[in-house]
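User: Predict LisH domain and HEAT repeat-containing protein KIAA1468's structure from this.
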Amino acid sequence: MAAGNVNPFNLSDSDEEAERRPSETADTERSPSDGAPGPPPGNPFSPPADAEPPSLLLSCSRTSPSGEGISVSAAATAAMAGSGETRVSVDVIAAQLLRDQYILTALEFHTELLEAGRELPRLRDYFSNPGNFERQSGTPPASKDQVLGPGGPLNRAGSISTLDSLDFARYSDDGNRESDERVAVLEFELRKAKETIQALRANLTQAAESEVPSQERKNFKSSPEIQEPIRPLEKRALNFLVNEYLLKNEYKLSSITFSDENDDQDFELWDDVGLNIPKPPDLLQLYRNCGSALPLPRDMVDVAVGVDFGELPGNYITQDPPKKPDLSQQVCVLASFSILSPLDNSKLSPAFQQALLSFCRMSSDSRLGAEVSRIADSEESVMLMLGRCLPHIVPNVLLAKREELIPLILCTACLHPEPKERDQLLHILFNLIKRPDDEQRQMILTGCVAFARHVGPTRVEAELLPQCWEQINHKYPERRLLVAESCGALAPYLPKEIRSSLVLSMLQQMLAEDKADMVREAVVKSLGIIMGYIDDPDKYSQGFELMLLSLGDPSERVVSAIHQVFIPAFAAWTTELGTLHTALIPSLLARIEKLLTQGEHGLDEHKLHMFLSALQSLIPPLFAVVLQNAPFTSRAKLHGEIPAIEVTRFPRPASPLQDVATIIGSREMLSALLLLYDHQLEHEGTTGWDSLLWVVNQLLPQLIEIVGRINVTSSTCVHEFSRFFWRFCRTFGKIFTNTKVKPQFQEILRLSEENVDATAGNGILTKATVPIYATGVLTCYNQEEDRKLLVGFLEDVMTTLSLSHAPLDSLKASFVELGANPVYHELLLTVLWYGVVHTSALVRCTAARMFELILRGMSEALVDRRAAPALITLCSGPEFSVRISTIPAFGTIMETVTQKELLERVKMQLASFLEDPQYQDQHSLHMEIIRTFGRVGPNAEPRFRDEFVLPHLHKLALSNNSQAVESKRIDIATQLFEAYSALSCCFISEELMVNHFLPGLRCLRADMEQLSPEHEVRTCTHTHTHTHTQDFISVSIASSLVGEDAKTKFLSKMGQLTTSGAMLANVFQRKK
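Assistant:
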């Protein structure tokens, strides 16, 4: 507005307004709605003639809602008729404009007030409510303050907008344009209205789908601990109010986070909530009014128009809904209506009434028509009706939505009086979904458990179990899986006789016959639950056989389930019977011993792992038995300050059922018992402690004896027993390990040469007892004294075995098991340095050979800093045997390390072995180098292989042709064959092929030709068959040549090869 303009609605008493000339009044037109004349002279509402009209006010010719032109002055005069010079409230003017449906004039008035900073609540609320503009002709206004004027309702279509939807151009001074543009504008607004309807329908559909069924709502009311799910509209409304609260109270970051988590909602616009309802008070106001009496919500609300706050469906937030009559009351009301004649007060004859009503199109002949025409008059009749209708309803419901019928089916089956109908309904339940997924099975199982709680064990046995039995051999695994899971879920609600007979037999049959892994997994878990509730001691042997059967299952899922569920449950039952340490554990130990006795020439490692893993899963329940039967158990107190259990006190359990705290009852009780346990072991001993004495005097000696009988070269067996002893010692604690376990091992492993039988090789130090003690017992705790004990033990074993010329398999097994964990690399290097600086060459040779076992997986920094210098130190010694022993370790470095400087140092050392004249006649050294080249060549750096390995193999093959000693020549040729076999898979350039690889093979062929028949037989024992040797040489050459033609020709010659050396020579000659 211009600076000199005066707001005509500003009722000011300034002198400027008082001195206005009476003759300067604006032209007005009489409104047909009130017929009021123009304002008298001096009317304060009339602006001066020379004043610029307000920019937002419509001119006198603009169209009013009633179809007539009207000015602002006329409207104001009409509102103030008879008031003279009395000041009138702007709210009264606004109310009069809205009441007479002068919508555009009221909008201008509202705009002027906004610019003047005097917002009027009545106008703000009116124009911010879309419901006031979204009704078709014939629909009454939503506001009680609004009435239709003589011109009828607002002549425009509904729109999703408010202020933006009022087209100012349509009400311009150009009246002709209105008729031209009217159709286009109405078409646009009709399209917008249709979009609004579609959006509202989508919101209402979503709300309807999320609506909780009435039966479930009844359950929610009867069970206060179960909360009714929130509806989408309620969630969006509450989200808006929460965000508004956060902003008002300066929780801006929380508001931003809340908005991000609800990105599908616009928190700046209340209309985005989804329905046309006015905004409720803020959260603070709702909280303050939550205890006050508010009007009850109405039964129905038309969501298409604006409503008062008392009509808001979400108003139940602050008040309890009205209590509805129960089912019996509703049925009685319906029954009372059903006995009344439709024309009860009529004087028509009955025949005429019947004839008259026959014109109503009703169908009672069909089944559905009979059900519809028959109104239930009691709760029992409702159940009967549901029993009749549900079998016809279920097949017509979408498969994806059939789980919605589960509550209805179960309630009907639970309350129906007819056993046959109940059986049919339960049959429908188990066949409701063709292949139920995990969520659907959980829903069915939840319903079955609820059914079992309600009806009791007898009906569960008579009605539910037959349904399971029928589906035990169903063709779909999902159905059989449902049966297996049902047996476990229903176990607590079955009679104990049925649990230990019928259900156990069903699960046993499924475990033995079912081919689906997931079904057998569920069977094992259900068997574990059955074992937790079984109380028949005669079923122990059956449970033990089921455990062994499950342990031997080929599926990892089934084996995992047996360790997580079945074994802990079975152990808990045997603990109650008192047979855990008298029957179950001894039975497993006896099977392990029998396996070792039968497998002297070939141990079944899979069965050993099976029995040992079961024994390992019994360690936590065994320790719980020791604590619960200790002399101090009765003194355990839970009151007072009890220290928390260290996180690393126990190994990580495979499942919660293997957690010692779960077995005992609570972590607090376990902590109190552990304090007394450690004190008892350290100060009072084990007198009278039968369960612990059995562990110390019977279990441990038997385990140590078994350990001494396993094959030390079997890394799998060593690893399994090592892990078992580690978990055993960690579970029973450090004091027990130091005072009970270590002394028994040390008594057997007396570190002296007397304990090593060098001739027979059967001394205790050559057995698996050494690596299992080192890796399973001495590594349980990682403090300084524990590490020193481990280092000293390994040093003594290395020295004793070396000086006794005994096999080093036990020491190698220890280094391999420890070397797999990088934590022990420094410790092992410390042990080996002790051997490097030892005075005996035998010990130094052993140390050199141990390096090869631990270099893989070791960091390059550690190799460069400690391993490589130690090996070079060994090479500087005078003994050739020690130098030769370092070659495999150098080869491993070449295979695993990428650091160039370190590789050059190793390369120089190996070159000195090959080129130094003092090693020229060292047959053992050449054998070791060729063997190492064959092992590391394929994995070594290509440059090292091309520039070092292949040329030196060529030289060694060439020099072997002139070897005078035939046995040495055969040995070298055999090793060369193995080396070329390994290198044949590598990419070899054409230059290397011509200069080194093929010449080396020709030299090897020459050695083969010179062999006598008996030597050929000896060579065949190294290479499996002489034919394989010839074939390999041909294939090696062919596969390395560039070009498919050469390969094809060479492979065609392979079919012509015989065992004669002449034919082999001919092939090579043709290749020249």
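The longest helix spans residues 175-209.
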